Amino acid sequence: MTAIALQGQRSFLDNLAIVLHRAAVAYAKHRRQQAKRAQIARELYSCSDRDLKELNIDSADIPAIINGTYRR
């Protein structure tokens, strides 16, 4: 192969490595967010209605809280 062809191939591999790295970072971020939502769900669903009332929320509000769409 010529030097230009090798340079183009390296560039492709470098770009591929960058894309794969970004995908891995995005996936790791997604998993952290998913774990955080699961922890919030466990904690809220373990609360009694009385505990939730002290927090000024209803059990019907829990899915919105977990998804980050809850508005008072």
Q: Overview of this structure, please?
A:
The protein is mostly helical and 72 residues long. The chain is 76% helix and 0% strand. It has one domain (9-67). It has helices at 3-45, 49-54, 62-67. It starts with a helix and ends in a 5-residue tail after the last helix. The model has no long low-confidence stretch (mean pLDDT 90).
- The 3D shape can be described as rod-shaped
Major β-sheet annotation: none
Count of the domains: 1
N-to-C CA distance: 65 Å
One letter per element, helices H and strands E, the order comes to: HHH
DSSP, total strands: 0
Estimate the mean pLDDT confidence.
90
Low-confidence stretches: none
- How much of the residues is beta strand, in percent? under 5%
Number of helices: 3
What is the SS-derived class? mainly alpha
Percent helix, as a range, is: over 70%
Radius of gyration from CA coordinates: 23 Å
